[in-house]
Structures are given as C-alpha cells and as structure tokens.
Amino acid sequence: MHRRSFVARSAATALGLAGGLGSLSLNAFAAGRVKPDGKSALLVIDVQNCFVDGGTLPVKGGAEVVPVINRIAGAFANIVVTQDWHTPGHASFASAHAGQKPFSSIKLSYGNQVLWPDHCVQGTDDAALHKDLQLPTAQLVIRKGFNKGVDSYSAFEEADRKTPTGLGGYLKQRGIRTVYVAGLATDFCVAWTALDARKAGFEVYVIEDATRAIDLNGSLAAAWKQMTAKGVRRIQSGDIDA
User: Fold this and answer.
1) Is residue 202 part of a domain?
2) Is 46 a catalytic residue?
3) Is the full-model pTM beyond 0.85?
4) What is the tens place of the pLDDT at every residue in 94-112?
C-alpha cells in the first residue's frame, strides 16, 4: 500500500496507546518448538478480500498467509477468526469527512485516527474471508469495527481502549491460556491483538511467517519492539508441532 510518512507515526502512536514502546532488543524471544494443546487457540486476524491484492486496502503479499495458516490449522482444536466489518460511512473512512483524503489523520473523540479508503463494508465481497482459508475447527467469528463511530484494530478491545469485544471472556470461559496470532497486518491489527491478549493475561505467540505487514518508516520494527517488551513470543510456522 502507498501511504504518507505520517502513517508510520500513527502506527507508533497506536502501539503507544496499547502500552508504550519498550526498550528491549528488536529480537523477540526465541520460543523453540511448541505444541498447542487443548488450552491453546489460534487467532486468525482479518484474512479478508479487502486486505489482499485486488482489495480496497491491500497489504503487500497478504494472500501469502493463507496456505501457511491452513497448514498449521490442524494443530489447533480451538480457532477464532476476526473480520473487519465496517458500516457504510464509518468514522474511519476518509469519505465520511468533508475535505479529507485517505491516509490523512484527524482527531476523533477517542484520539488520533488514520482515515482509510472505504474498505471491508458489511455484507460486501470485499469484507468476506479469503475463499481459500480452510479452518475446520473454527468456532467463533469476531466482527470488529461495526460501531460506526469507533475504529477497531484489536480483536479484544475497540480503539477507544474501553469497549471490549467479548473475546477475552469467551477464551477464558473455554479455559484457553495460550493464544497464537496470525493474519493481517502485523504492525496494526495483529500487534494490537497480541498486546491486548498479553494485557488480558494470556501467553501469546505471533507466528511471523503467517503474517504480513504494512511496514512503513519503522512501523514493523516498532510493533515487534513493543510486543517483545510485553512478553509476546515470535515464532515461525515450522516451530509448531502438529
């Protein structure tokens, strides 16, 4: 995607809202081989048509995560999927604000908001999950961003940082203790989800090769630095034992 330089600053600001940049090395914890158990869940974040080539807000290489996610899905008895699910005229759309263009930034009631092109509008093919996803044990779809006035990056909490989605309670009620996060995009919705999962008390792994990033002007490095500081573990799909 083509973005103005301030978007990277917005990414850092967004991550800061989730807990402030840490001071640890950019190299995340080496997790070694891991075997998900019945108290583990895979969170598949926003693998939708809008975020792959041909979509309204594509992440470079976004569709490449699909075969990786499909390959590891069999290792998980518990899978949760998220969808960006915006109303027409959503507050995060540039088109909803007179004189504003996509990738500009404004202040809304809950803080700074990057304005995006219209994307992932409810009920459209653009908002549909990628047709090649194969997740036979998926049990729940969390739709986020459906509140017309508030954006939502994290699967756990909306961007106002006070409205829960209910995912944390669902996972805890199911006895889940560990979450593995995959999907789009690493430095936005994946990072926010991972950070909020840690805040909620879960052990968290981000499967790096099952994500793709926007990565502008250091936003990806900032995301990994923040996640590392909060105890998120960085692994590859090959580290997961089926």
Assistant:
1) no
2) yes
3) yes
4) 999 999 999 899 999 999 9
